[in-house]
Amino acid sequence: MFKKILIANRGEIALRVLRACREMGIQTVAVHSTADASAMHVRFADESVCIGPPQVGESYLNKLSILAAAEITGAEAIHPGYGFLSENADFCQMVEEHGFAFIGPTPDHIRLMGDKIVAKDTAKKLGIPCVPGTDGPVASDEEALAAAEEIGWPVLIKAVSGGGGRGMTVVHDRSQLLDALRMARGEAKAGFGDDRVYIEKFLAAPRHIEVQVLCDTHGQVLHLGERDCSLQRRHQKVVEEAPSPVLDAGDREKLGLLVAKAMEKFGYRGVGTLEFLYENGQFYFIEMNTRLQVEHPVTELITDTDLVREQIRVAAGEKLAFSQSDVRFRGHAIECRITAENPKTLAPSPGRVTGYHAPGGPGVRMDSALYAGYTVPPYYDSLIGKLIVHDVDRPTCLRRLERALAECVVEGVDTNLPLLRTVIGTSAFRNGQYDTGWLGKFIADWEPPVV
Ligand code: MV4
Questions:
Q1: Same domain, yes or no, for 270 and 357?
Q2: Which of 66, 95, 185, 355 is the residue whose CA sits 20 to 30 A from 7?
Q3: Do 235 and 190 have their domain in common?
Q4: What atom in ligand 1 is closest to the CA of residue 201?
Q5: Tens of pLDDT along 424-451?
Q6: Ligand 1 atom at minimum distance from 232 CA
Q7: pLDDT confidence of 167, banded at 50, 70, 90?
Q8: Domain tally for the chain?
Q9: Is 238 in the pocket of ligand 1 (CB under 6 A)?
Q10: Are 215 and 221 in contact (CB under 8 A)?
Q11: Cα(425)–Cα(253) distance, rounded to whole angstroms?
Q12: For residue 337, is it within any domain?
């Protein structure tokens, strides 16, 4: 097992990884920009290294600074967290070439799943259902027209190098296709420097359901159920829950086993998440995330696992301590992402947190690096914490979540807490009847309460 791990991230996820390390008796090295010198993960770490100025390109994305920090502190492994360099295949390769362990998958798997066309082709070959569409970029207008007719209208034109909802154009009939294709190629060229586009069947009101997998280096592969992440706005997840309120036990087991078998064939290492669109009882693979995800705690709570601990054990070459038959799904968990931003306009709201009180009590977990007096920097993502609540079933979990949200206090900066409290109280959310478009429409008509 490693004696010292460098955590190449910041905020709540850096603290999350640090906590797992501490419980495992592993020394921790925090890296930070000058803007994060007084951040909690720096205070709690055994050692810390300043890796640059606030700008991410010169700090948290600065591969050489991070490798140098690992070198001078004698770290044996690097945990990338999520975001930043966590899915950067070149960084993963550099880490391994410099003799450190990368706590995550292999560079090849990161690279492969990072290309959406190759990822979809790989999924198909592994027997995973995908959205009907072209096998690759469309080469001509004629090919696009023929493909769209075969797929059936409406279709979605997607930029090969797009992502997170950028570079998508819905086309409702034949007469619109050629103009839409020209527009989409132009926007892709301008936005991503790559004008290649492909075509898929458009799913008008899908749910976003993702499956968590955990694989060691001894051939043991298991799934830890699904998460429903359909409550999103502008492709930013806001609330996630496990299990999904729209899946029954049969669907759950069928999807989980299909994904686990595919990952076994793929020879995957570590934790990973396969994302699906779900509509009319059908699953359609859209992409695979080769990293720990923000929303991993809801899975941890219903399966009683510590995914970061398992990541570290797998990276150290250990076998998983449990098999699929040992996995038990208990109760229901819901996560609310708490952001320092105006809940209506999404404008970031950095600044000094003058007051902070975290909710507590049975089944309540607050993953946050906030403290009273902390200054939320303007340079990074606006996520300042995750409130995760677990209980025996969804209605009980909802009551506990409402109570915990009411206890949560963050003063000095705007937050989305008023929006979260409102959404959790809506009948649509309480009945589980929301798709990936619901929150955007709800917020358009919503006015924050006057405090
Ligand atoms: C789709 C789709 C409907 N039909 N593909 C958005 C981001 C990227 N991960 C894939 N996305 C979508 N792809 C087809 N063929 C709708 C979306 C989509 C979406 C998907 C998941 C979660 C939130 C979303 C919000 C808007 C659109």
A1: yes
A2: 355
A3: no
A4: 15
A5: 999 999 999 999 999 999 999 999 888 7
A6: 23
A7: confident
A8: 3
A9: no
A10: yes
A11: 30
A12: yes
Q: Residue 386 belongs to what domain range?
A: 207-444
Active site residues: 291
- Give the mutation target among 116, 168, 200 for probing the ligand 1 site: most ligand atoms within 8 A of CB: 168
List the one residue out of 302, 214, 207, 309 whose CA is nearest residue 256: 214
* pLDDT over 90 at 115, yes or no: no
Q: Is 160 within a domain? A: yes
227 lies in the same domain as 356: yes
Count of beta carbons in the 10 Å neighbourhood of residue 42: 20
Which domain-ending residue is among 201, 231, 256?
201
User: Largest Cα–Cα distance of the chain, in whole Å?
Assistant: 64
Ligand 1 neighbourhood includes 436 CB (under 6 angstroms):
yes
Q: Give, using CA atoms, the residue closest to atom 11 of ligand 1.
A: 165
Q: Two tokens at 24?
A: 């495992």
441 Cβ inside 6 Å of ligand 1? no
Q: Where does a domain end: 85, 118, 143? A: 85
Residue 165 banded pLDDT, cuts 50, 70, 90: confident
Nearest CA to 443 among 245, 272, 232?
232
Ligand 1 atom 14 nearest Cα: 202
Would you say the pTM of this structure is higher than 0.90?
yes
- Residue 228 burial class via C-beta count within 10 angstroms: exposed 0-12, middle 13-18, buried 19 and up: buried
